[in-house]
Amino acid sequence: MCHILSELDFETLLSFIRTRRRFYKLFLANWTYILPRILQSEFSPVEGIFRIIDDDLTSLAMCPPKLLGTAGFLSRLIQICHAVKKWEAIFPALRFSHQSGAASRILGVDENDRLRRALYTWWRFSNHFHGDNLPSPNVRFSFLRMLSTAELYELDDLWRTVQAAVEEKISPSVERVRLILGHDCLSEEAAKIGWGHGEENQRIARTIVKLNPADMLHFLFRRHTYATKMSLVREIRLRHPSIEDNTEVLSWALQAVIAERFRYLAQQKGERAISRRRYFPADLGFPRCSGGILDYPAVRWEKIRIKFSDDGSDVIANREVHRLQIYLHDRVSRGQLMPLSG
User: Fold this and answer.
1) CB-based contacts of 60, cutoff 8 Å, min separation 6
2) Is residue 211 part of a domain?
3) Is the domain of 80 the same as that of 176?
4) What is the pLDDT of residues 239-252, one digit of tens each?
5) What is the spatial distance between Cα 198 and Cα 217, in angstroms, rounded to a whole number?
6) What's the average model confidence in pLDDT over 270-278?
7) Residue 257 and residue 173 share a domain
8) The model's pTM
């Protein structure tokens, strides 16, 4: 029976063990045998899931027996897997929402692998840098420098998709509301729906995107259940009391590390490396029709991705890093959830 359960896909396994208490108990007693094959086949790179739970873990084999025996560990693992499956389902709709209908599609196998890798990185970054304490810019740089150039662009693709979704579905600006409802809608009416203007709206969005991927899913899927802005803000504050201490720090750090990576490539490989910007552009335009998480249209372009898939390093490549650190530190403003006019 355990072997049969290990051959099921993740969602079917969860549905099956809920049908009978006997099956559920069987799963609890043997989950360390049942889950690994499912994790390997559906959640690769699987080490990313364990590093969300603990940075020192990369597999079940590395987990201390005392930790494996706790219900909390299994519950956390299943929660993460469930969130990953939901992100796989929702991401194409979010990613292609700003492109023509002809461009909309489901993700391929390799694209889902890149999505999961970027998702695991975002989750870990959220755990480390979007919590109660804000480490120095150098710590954030070190975290991102360990990513390859290809992984940096995958993360950027996911992150920009999330930011766009927040600005559109959770906290749209007054201007966006008027654009959707038409300019016959009065500013006063739009202000009741919208979340401020200009910089204030951007600050609110940069505060909300500090949510971890699981919480972000909740508010993307269930935004309609919060009748007022205040009820939504109250729920976010209840889950994360210190979320308004500052705004997100991933955007600036990610852009700075990508710029640093290109300077490093130019120093190490000469100006010819700049030609790679066709595949990894410096301006990080969004949404792009290929690259990042998405496949390139030509096989020869994918070879470029492979070439830059293992060049991550915590090497400080130039003297401008200290100045960038100070700049990034100064760019972190206090967070805000409720518009002043709301």
Assistant:
1) 32, 35, 36, 50, 68
2) yes
3) no
4) 999 999 989 999 98
5) 25
6) 58
7) yes
8) 0.91
